[in-house]
Input
Amino acid sequence: MTARVLRRVAIFVVSVLVASIVVFLFMAVLPGDPAQVALGVNATPELLAKTRAEFGIDRPLVTQYFDWIGGVLHGDFGRSYVTRDSIGPQLLDRLGVTLWLVGAGMLVALVIAVPAGTFAAVKHRKASGAGVSGLSQIGVAIPAFLAGIILVQIFAVQLRWLPSGGWTPPNQDAGEFVRGLILPALSLGLVQGAVLTRYVRSAVLDTLGQDYLRTARSKGLRPGQALVRHGLRNASVPVVTVLGLQLATLLIGAVVVERVFVLPGLGSMLLDAVASRDLLTVQGIVLVLVVGVLLVNFVVDVLYTVLDPRLRGS
Amino acid sequence: MKARIPVLAAALLLVVSGCSAGSSASVSAGPDTLSVGFTAEPANFDFTRTDGAAIPQALLYNVYEGLVKLDSQGKVVPLLAKSWTISPDRKTYDFQLQPGVKFSNGAPFTAEDVKFSLMRVKTDWTISIKSTMDVVDHVDAVAPDHARVVLSKPSNGWLFSLTSRLGAMFSPTGVADLAAKPVGTGPYVVAARKRGDSVVLKANPAYWGRKPAYTTVVLKYIKDPTALNNALYSNGIDVISAITAPDSIPQFQADDRFQVVQGTSNSEVTLAMNNARAPLNDVRVRQALTYAIDRKALLDTAWAGRGTLIGSMVPPTDPWYEDLANVYPFDPAKAKALLTEAGATNLNLRMRIPNLPYAVSAAQVVQSQLADVGVRTTIEPLDFPAVWLKQVFTDHDYDLSIIQHVEARDITTFGKPKYYWGYDSKRVQQLLAEADSGTPEQQVADMKQVARQLNTDAAADWLFLFPNVIVAKAKVGGFVQNQVSESFDLTGLAPR
Output
């Protein structure tokens, strides 16, 4: 098992390094000059040259890359071209918002999917089970941003129960924080919940047909008890895989949902930074997102071995 | 398990309904607090080193004040200067300063600060409009309440530029950290900022002038137009500083919780034509295109009919405004005749526009109308600002483009042959120079001639003047109707 984890760690490190190079190269070939965008319509050639030197973008790409990645390894993401502030603390600040959003979205997805999926599996021959199944199919078809727009129309604009957007830090006003998080978390979570419901359903269905469940029933356990005690853990392996993939989707979905709900997270920071060609900031954010996704995959990999002892030997 | 889900759902509902019953207003907490929504967020607070409209929009007149300011009609009026006199040679300006003015850090405001601030533009500012201050030769602090500015040559444009951020007054004790801690003499101070979200202004207790009615103003930054509208509907904000989606206006007008204030701006939506390159270097071709476009129809389609047809690079709030909107009436037959006369048949032009909603919708109308007179166009939307600035604005790689020119009195750009218009007219350059150095009367006369000349040469096609549309809750009053200064002026806002 140790060897397996170590191999995973090595893959993770190499992936991050490769990703950093790819991210950097993408930024380098993106059309548009950061100095020009920073200076605007009245820029003179002399000022442009001076600003390029100030940003350090007149140096060879290799030097720029090593300078950047060296700093990142020390926790220094550099200074933004636009705000002239150091990027690291801002990234951390924004990451907090995004993590709350993704976490809440995941929670909503799980709260919907596990009971609904199990229900649909257990009652798969009944109309009610097929109904849940069908509903989830519809949910899969709705993109998160559309769900967001619809939720805002109903709960913020028409009913005025919840704010249409904005962010209150939890330590400032916990009630407002929760109120502000409900709609974004729902728009992210409903869709993912629908997707997950289908996987939970098929995983549970699969488990229900296994011999050991029949054995458990024959020992005298009721169907529900047998499923909870012996079935769910086995059903969870494929579900965890999907969950890992979904976390990555949620992270990306959060970029869009943050724009709809005006949340100051990584996503809105990323869109602004791309528009103003704040390349260092873009690089930093993308790297953090990539590391996040790789980290999730890594954790999922390790989780397999925890959930399924049969995988530990290999 | 079955019992738990309804319980959870009920708890969630309780949170939702319980909170909403207690506090329907989320941001607009008390009657003294006002929340204003904007689309563009300031990158930092230092407009001396960071360009862009967002910083002066938030800070000018509200946090920073200059000697003079621009009123809603485009007139230069006193602010920190009570009055001023101009010498007969129009080179020496004597400003009498307001007494008892203090910066928000407690330092008194005197003529020494005028000298410090104006000279600092030359030494410490980096944004390129600072060159407007090159004409200042020196500043004397004659007495604490009397500053004298001596110019190297007469310039009407200079006094006008003092109404912009260039005229903002700083204290030597308050410039250590301009990006984070602005120190001005204005009625508000910056109390807090949450990046990507908002800036909070609080009333400056030591303000010398009339105290603002709202003691707290939250500037909320919401990029998406729909989200901005929703924030007003759902009580998240009280005011939308400028509507960027005109289709939503009738909905607000029909709802008596809201009011719509519409005025003019400095922002000419312009069809730029590359004057330096064939075939648009031929005045007949440019005139033909101008005849071929039905600007009224375009305004109706592209911006819901809201806006003003102008005909030259002059908004109605400039003193030399004349209505030139009907010099080139919509006349496809005449357009075709002119094109034939110029031998410019079978044209295929590249319309390289910024990927912004107004430009895209205007471009589609222009494309179809030009097609009616046999001119083919290819629309190429470019990422704005980065790619558009580089390829169209800097490298002049375009035939046609559509963009808002937002700066005040930017008609002077036609005096720069290297500007992306590619327009090079000795007469216009000379008239602009004369206008700047002459008496105010001569300035008006000269500028009128410039505007007419540009119109005659069809140097560009001024499609329409962008409207300034503010939407607010009905209870808020005191808005500046015409957005002609760089500031979103909060100082006059008050409950009605």
In short: DSSP finds 13 helices and 18 strands in chain B. The longest strand of chain B covers residues 258-273.
